[in-house]
């Protein structure tokens, strides 16, 4: 399983386009190969009309570490059901 932190901004077709400056997306991918997980992570973020600025963090993670984390519980549970999980942390133009 792989963890990615992706910095992105909304594209014109994104429902958040006029409201937010950007987002950091926590992505969990249940995949054995790092390159394949990377391709899937960027695909799922792009599919929701977000332009990827950078992948700010990525690493292989042990399942039990995420299961114990309250911060990642929601995205972990979604990943267990669907093979991937995304959680957007939005920020606005007036935020530093």
Describe the protein.
By secondary structure, the chain is an alpha+beta fold. The protein has a domain at 1-25 and 32-54 and 81-87. It is built from three helices and four strands; from the N terminus they run ββαβααβ. It has a four-stranded antiparallel β-sheet. The longest helix has 14 residues, at 34-47. It is globular and about 40 Å long. The model has no long low-confidence stretch (mean pLDDT 89).
| Biggest beta-sheet profile | 4 strands, antiparallel
* Number of E strands: 4
- Total helical elements: 3
How would you classify the helix and strand content by structural class? alpha+beta
Proportion of residues in extended strands: 35-45%
**Helicity level:** 25-40%
The H/E string reads: EEHEHHE
Overall geometry: globular
Amino- and carboxy-terminal Cα gap: 32 Å
User: Main sheet: which strands, in order across?
Assistant: 3-1-2-4
Radius of gyration: 13 Å
> Residue ranges: pLDDT <50 for 5 or more in a row?
none
Mean pLDDT: 89
Which helices and strands appear, and what pairs or packs with what?
Layout lengths: L1 E9 L11 E8 L4 H14 L2 E11 L2 H5 L5 H10 L1 E8 L5
Antiparallel strand pairs: 1-2, 1-3, 2-4
Q: Could you give a short description of this structure?
A:
This protein is 30% helix and 38% strand. The model has no long low-confidence stretch (mean pLDDT 89).
Keywords:
alpha+beta; 96 residues; globular; 3 helices; 38% strand; four-stranded antiparallel sheet
